[in-house]
Amino acid sequence: MPNGKVGIDFGLVKGNEGNVGVTLNGDADHVYSISLVKFYPSENYQDIIQQQLQSGDTIALIADRCALAEYGTGKNTGKNKFYEIRLAAGAVYVEASVDDDDVSTASASALGSTVFVFYRSKPSRRIAKMRCHEL
């Protein structure tokens, strides 16, 4: 993972695959989504999420094979999939994707990443805009 330095001092260090960056998306009153960016790309989305759940919680794929990129423009290269997670407190939704475009470069994302975006309600408009196959 990146060493946190810029310019000539930039470098990569081996990190814990469990390290993540967290971004809260919302306004002063509400959080609409939470993004977790995990270093290293992995398409084992469901397994990664399932390891974080309790035994009574379930996860189900609700959409995949998205044709368009996240803003509905261009081809989708992120291998996005959408899941519904059933917890004791109710359902939450997650969109999972990988970013491994820069694996061969010496940039901050040189190792690629796996992104999980959690939503309180089903992101139906996003799924439709990306032309995903709903299950």
Helix content: under 10%
Uncertain runs are 103-109
- Helix-strand pattern, N to C? EEHEEEEHE
How many strand units? Answer: 7
Backbone CA Rg = 16 Å
Average the pLDDT over all residues and give the rounded result: 83
* Form type: globular
Largest sheet: 7 strands, antiparallel
How many domains make up the coordinates?
1
By secondary-structure content and strand pairing, the structural class works out as: mainly beta
- What's the end-to-end separation, in Å? 35 Å
User: In order across it, which strands form the biggest sheet?
Assistant: 1-2-6-5-4-3-7
Our count of helices gives 2
Structure description:
This protein has helices at residues 45-50, 124-129; strands at 20-26, 31-39, 58-64, 81-87, 90-99, 113-119, 133-134. It is 9% helix and 36% strand. With 135 residues, it is mostly beta strands. It has one domain (18-134).
Task: Give a nutshell description of this structure.
The protein is mainly beta and 135 residues long. The chain has helices at 45-50, 124-129; strands at 20-26, 31-39, 58-64, 81-87, 90-99, 113-119, 133-134.
List keywords for this structure.
mainly beta; globular; 135 residues; seven-stranded antiparallel β-sheet; 9% helix
Please describe the topology of this protein.
Elements: E1 20-26, E2 31-39, H1 45-50, E3 58-64, E4 81-87, E5 90-99, E6 113-119, H2 124-129, E7 133-134
Antiparallel strand pairs: 1-2, 2-6, 3-4, 3-7, 4-5, 5-6
